[in-house]
Amino acid sequence: MKSSTLFAVLALLSVPGMAAAGDMAAAEYNFAINELSQASFNQAAIIGQQGNLNNARIRQDGQKMQAMISQNGNGNRANVDQSGYYNLAYIAQDGQSNSASITQAAWGNTAMILQKGAGNRASITQYGTQKTAVVVQKQSQMAIRVVQR
């Protein structure tokens, strides 16, 4: 099950790179994946970037974590900080100068931030157990902070 989920995510993240393949002057699609397959950890961290001056960071301290960041555009920043067990985080940014952050502790949390536009700011913090939060920003200059305890 984990392998099929990981394969599906990899397939989805590779699509923007194929769209820009015809333009040799376009920015490259950077892709990084780290999976700790040891049974006691089972963590996956996936980062896909296309554009310039994008910054992405994933920190995982716990077990059975999944974190994915996809950035398309320029000057975007994304951060995922996970601790505990069975947490899932996803950040997708399409545009310019967007900033997103997800912090998860405890267990069973799901957080998703989708940003399209320029200058958006979003933050999700989850300290409780089995919390779910989704933020969708489709305009520019929007800001939101979600805290769940």
From TrEMBL:
<protein>
    <submittedName>
        <fullName>Curlin minor subunit CsgB</fullName>
    </submittedName>
</protein>
<dbReference type="GO" id="GO:0007155">
    <property type="term" value="P:cell adhesion"/>
</dbReference>
<keyword id="KW-0732">Signal</keyword>
<keyword id="KW-0281">Fimbrium</keyword>
<dbReference type="Pfam" id="PF07012">
    <property type="entry name" value="Curlin_rpt"/>
</dbReference>
<dbReference type="InterPro" id="IPR009742">
    <property type="entry name" value="Curlin_rpt"/>
</dbReference>
<comment type="similarity">
    <text>Belongs to the CsgA/CsgB family.</text>
</comment>
<dbReference type="GO" id="GO:0009289">
    <property type="term" value="C:pilus"/>
</dbReference>
<feature type="signal peptide">
    <location>
        <begin position="1"/>
        <end position="21"/>
    </location>
</feature>
